[in-house]
């Protein structure tokens, strides 16, 4: 359950056609910036280009203290709150929340994603209605700076990427103050307990409990 078609309902993102080019979601990370630059000028007149290569839907709410780095797209009815720091290369869908002191960089947030409090999300893709609890982060670089490998049981997937945070499937819930280590992939409808340290592949419809114990939902 680590392929794009298994993790995501692509009808909930502007990146549908872009993501359909790939088998695994991390393969899309390198091209997010170029995709946004190509997509922005073709958006409907419901979007405003508020500065060079930054497009914001007219129904979105962006607090004055938020920073929107180029390139980025902010979708309909999305709220970018006080002190949010969007570093750039961020495609943020409709009805999302980017909260206080949240930092985003090189990401795709599907529709209805919530990153509401003190989150760092970098080099990651967050699926439809996924939610990052307060203080939870994606760690996107290994401490030894080697290339990230996705570990799925006895299978290892060489990504060729130095920077790769996490792939969250649709409806994933990440508990407060959890750390998703480089190369984490979490299947649809899975939950992570608060203050967890997660690595590798978490199957769909699972719960990550204390100590990294993973159980299937009943």
Automatic annotation (TrEMBL):
Pfam family, one: GMPPB_C
Domain Mannose-1-phosphate guanyltransferase C-terminal: 71-186
Gene3D superfamilies membership: Hexapeptide repeat proteins
Keyword Ligase belongs to the record: no
Annotated signal peptide: none
GO molecular function annotations of the record: acyltransferase activity; nucleotidyltransferase activity
Record protein name field: UDP-N-acetylglucosamine pyrophosphorylase
Species lineage: Bacteria, Bacillati, Bacillota, Erysipelotrichia, Erysipelotrichales
